[in-house]
Amino acid sequence: MVAEVEDELRFTRETLQTTIEQLETSNEELKSTNEELQSTNEELQSTNEELETSKEEMHSTNEELVTVNSELQNKVHELEELNNDISNLLASTEIATLFLDNDLHIKRFTPSATELFNLIGSDIGRPIGDITTKMYYDNLQTDCKKIVDSLVPQETEIQTRDGGWLTMRLGPYRTLENMIDGVVITFVDITREKAAQQEANKARIFAENIVNTVREPLLVLDQKLGVISANRSFYRTFNVNQKETEQKSFFELGNRQWNIPELKKQILEILPQNKSFTDFKVDHNFPAIGRRLMLLNGRQVVDQTDDGSALVLLAIEDITDHKTN
After folding, report:
1. Spatial separation of the C-alpha atoms in residues 268 and 35, rounded to whole Å
2. What is the chain's Cα-based Rg?
3. Can you give the pTM of this predicted structure?
4. What 8-state DSSP symbol labels residue 226?
5. Nearest Cα to 224, choosing from 252, 261, 193?
6. 238 and 316, same domain (yes or no)
7. Which of 25, 51, 168, 308 would suit a FRET pair with 233, their CA atoms being 20 to 30 Å apart?
8. 144: domain CATH number?
9. CA dihedral of 201, 203, 207, 210, whole degrees rounded to 10
10. Is residue 60 one of the residues assigned to a domain?
């Protein structure tokens, strides 16, 4: 029994020793694990601090994005209003306008442009050369190309197929950065002005024909008393030509035969005071025709064929033979 007890005691001691060694090993492992957990905890704490910092940065960035988004919305609203203003302005002017890019493709056009070009909304982006027009003009694409190459504006009068007249202006399209981004074409209706000009030309020709049938020499002077025109009788009577007379000062004509102080005073008072004079005698030795006695009559007239400006009409009568008789 003693031997058995000793064996059990020895076994128990060995078992206890093994258990103690295992406990010591486990304790070492637990200690190592605890150190690792502490390290992990520190790392997690650091990561958490970084996340907090990132969260604050994201919050700040989000606030900036909200501000930028608000500013962008305001800009979009302003651009919409500006676009509406420009569209209404272009529509209200009733000036046909085309905007082309550098490749001469249509970027935009005003409603009035549809009266001259067969345009619809889907034509945006099409080459201008593909669009048919209602004008007698075949060089539009060529002229637009010249504008892109030379940047020199161009102005041309063209006629529409219904008998109207237009002034077409072509110029480079400049951005706010002063970059060339295509061509701007505008069309201004000048049908009435053209008709008025034709009527004025007819009236002028009619008046000139009447004046040229008058036997007395006649002169028309501008406000600076330069000769605008003279009739045939004047050229024939004084043996001078148009080059020697028109655009010259009346008082410089010939050998300054009309530069008489009293006559000059009479003529200078015509326009400012709307005066007239009759039968002013000039006895002078004229070049090429000799000594003659002339009667001058002067009065104010209004040019009905131009801008309605006041002019001076001088009528000259040769009474030399009457004096002799």
Report:
1. 119
2. 50
3. 0.51
4. B
5. 252
6. yes
7. 308
8. 3.30.450.20
9. 110
10. no
